[in-house]
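Recall the central idea of this unit: under ordinary conditions, the amino acid sequence of a chain determines the structure it adopts. In this exercise we apply that idea directly, starting from the sequence alone.
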Amino acid sequence: MTAVAPNKILDPQKILMDTFMSCEPEYEKQYHIISPIDEVMKIDCFGIFRENATEILCLMPSAQAADAFYNPVFNRWAWSNSFPGKHILVFSDPSLYLGSIGASWFISGKDGEDIPAHIANFIASVAQKLNILSDRVVMYGSSMGGFGALMTAAELPKSMAISELPQVDVAKYSNRQALINIEEALLDGVAIDEFSKTHAAQVVVLERFKKVNIIPSFLLITNRRDHGFRLQQSFFADVLEMAPRMSSVGDVAMKVMPDPAGHKTLHGSIIVKLINSAFDVGSEIFYNAR
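Accordingly, the structure predicted from this sequence is:
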């Protein structure tokens, strides 16, 4: 049995990625797909597949408390019921295997281990198996998951990210304790701003875009009282400024919600509508950054 949250239990069939890729998945069946990254880390993905689906929705992991976390954990797995016509992939955080940490922001601290790239490769393999084009793949996440959605979309050309209240530069996150946890559990005590000097593409979304020379399609959702609002504003302005110099530029938008809710996600029903709109070709919520 796999713990997905306090007081909620799922019973998906565990299956190795290689085995999954060589079999025909059953529709509406719950799968826990496991893909080793190295001798310690692995990708854990909860999957549900639908007959005649032409799109994949990927749900990225949220932060957990450092002193009470589950591994693996599949945040928002129940949202699969709100998207009956789509394949669903729900990711746990691979860095949970590296130490006593509930939130890594997809930073491994290990040279050569790029977690967003590993997740993107996993998604690309599943999409190829299901005959789904990457422009029919949408990633959603909030806060840490919003950061991960942007980072992973950059590694999967033509995919889209819906990023709610993301940290766009982890080293500038206002929650100092979260950064200390990363430094102690993943970086051998190295300060994250020092780590960022040599591994900027793991810490700063804009640097990831520059590294891959791609601005993916994305919708950034925020409000003026979120602690990262000014950084999000600057990030979006920088994206528009650098767009003419990038090799690939998607459709982007920043939606500032009128309710000054702070670092609190929108009601699930609103997010469901926004996600469905993102799959609509020519949706009015996006415009091309060029």
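The CA atoms of residues 79 and 268 lie 9 Å apart.
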